[in-house]
Amino acid sequence: MMALLAAVLLGAQEPPEIAGWIRDLGDDAIEVRERATVELVRVGRRAEPALREAVRRGGEAGGRAAQVLAEIAKAERTRLFEAAPSRITLRKKDASLRETLEDIQKQTGCKLTTSFAPEGEKITIAFENTPLFEAVDALCRACRRTTYSVENRREDVSVSIAEGKCPDWPRVFRDQYFVRLEGLSLSTVYDLQGGGASKCRLDFRWGWEKGTRPQQAVLRIEELVDDLGNSYVADLPDPAMRPVGFAYVTTQQPVEWTRVPPAGATRFAKIRGSLDLSFPETLLVFPFEKPEESAGTLRKTEGGSVRLVSCARDRTRLRAKIGVHPGELVGRLEMKALDPQGREYPGRYTRGEAGDGESVLLSVEFTLPESSEAASLQFSSPSGARPRRIPFEFKDVRIR
Questions:
Q1: Residue 361 in contact with residue 353, Cβ under 8 Å?
Q2: Which of 100, 108, 122, 308 could be a cystine partner for 94, CB 3.0 to 4.6 Å?
Q3: Rounded CA gap, 271 and 267, in Å?
Q4: What are phi and psi of 386, to 5 degrees?
């Protein structure tokens, strides 16, 4: 019993390395202070009590401890929208595709499926801390007769393996992200008078792992040069901008322009650009418990408010009217109904109209099974913007 009590007391104590790092915040060497800051932010909430005590004591170390607490809070907010990447560490020799996928699945939250399991073909791979998408790409090339696709749907991300030759897409992998060029085409459309309009098109696709939720994705081309030295950047349209909000984020984009490379150009010597992502700094959440009994309830945050004007159930349809203030929140608002077991049912707009002042009245609808009860409604909107840039550079891309 005494041994058990001692173990419990030891578990409740502050880890000795945390105390050491906090002491290092007052060190004269900047390298020591920076390392201590990095380690304390990595430890996160476990270091918060000791950091607050250091702030209370004051002094130079106390001031730095306050800065570390702010960095920990920032890192916590970041993890709400940008999960840590899956890193695959796996060695297989003469293994089947299905067995290898099952082992990779254990190391990621993304769903891996296959519709093809080649008989008799054995795979040998060695991954050491390899990003998930890079590992899947290498696996399909090792298997030789398989290809893959990635589908991002709100919270769910699935990677599907299928029969086929894995195209040699120009591609880049960065942590939990990938960007690849999936197509290049030249075309000419002729009119009835014999005139023609030509265009060139690049098709890009990108994606991210489960748990990462950008509110905007914009592909930018910064350099586009053929093997004759012709530049096409000035001919490109402005990047497609999307409204800020999770529901509008796309994972593919065609880039078209009308000046086709001359016949002597056979390759793009360089295609350089970036995928520019924007993440919320925080999420405004407006919850309504027992919504059919909560008409008139107002939920407020520093960034706005939502009032549940009415809510009624008709078999599988749950219809609600909400007042949103300010109206600019409407374009970014996500909505879902939750049953008592926590299952989620997304909502949709059916009608909108102007309300009082800067507010907007929205009619929304949720579809639930007849046997399910709506325990709560939840409306949420991203707030703020934190940028993340995924650069890419593709060389020697064949045109013809």
A1: yes
A2: 122
A3: 10
A4: -125, 120
pTM for the structure as a whole: 0.76
**What are the tens digits of pLDDT across the range 284-294?**
999 999 999 99
Residue reference for tokens 């000035």: 234
Structure tokens that stand for 206 in this block: 């990108």
Tell me which residue range forms the domain holding 317.
282-382
Residues 252 and 382: beta-carbon distance below 8 Å: no
Cβ–Cβ < 8 Å for 217, 235: no
Contact of 127 with 135, CB cutoff 8 Å? yes
**Whose structure tokens read 């009415």?**
310
Q: Which of the pair, 335 or 4, is modelled with greater confidence? A: 335
For residues 355 and 307, the answer to whether their CB atoms sit within 8 Å is: no
* Residue 275 maps to a domain: yes
Interatomic CA distance for residues 295 and 323, integer angstroms: 11
d(CA 296, CA 133): 47
Location of structure tokens 């409204």: 243
Distance separating alpha carbons of residues 170 and 392, to the nearest angstrom: 10
Q: Do 276 and 397 fall into the same domain?
A: yes
Give the list of residues 6+ apart from residue 236 with CB closer than 8 angstroms, or none.
221, 224, 255, 257
Burial grade of 329 (CB within 10 A; 0-12, 13-18, 19 or more)? buried
Tell me 209's DSSP state.
-
For residues 390 and 6, give the distance between their C-alpha atoms in angstroms, rounded to a whole number: 49
| Pairwise pLDDT comparison (59 vs 254), residue with the higher score | 254
**Contact between 343 and 379 (Cβ < 8 Å):** no
31: closest CA among 190, 268, 39? 39
Whether omega for the bond prior to residue 326 falls within 30 degrees of 0, making it cis, is: yes
The answer to whether the Cα torsion of 31, 39, 83, 74 is positive or negative is: negative
* Shared domain check, 392 and 250: yes
Looking at the fold, whether 267 and 397 belong to one and the same domain comes out as yes
Residues 271 and 400 placed together within one structural domain of the fold: yes
275 and 287 within one domain: no
Residue 1 lies in a domain: no
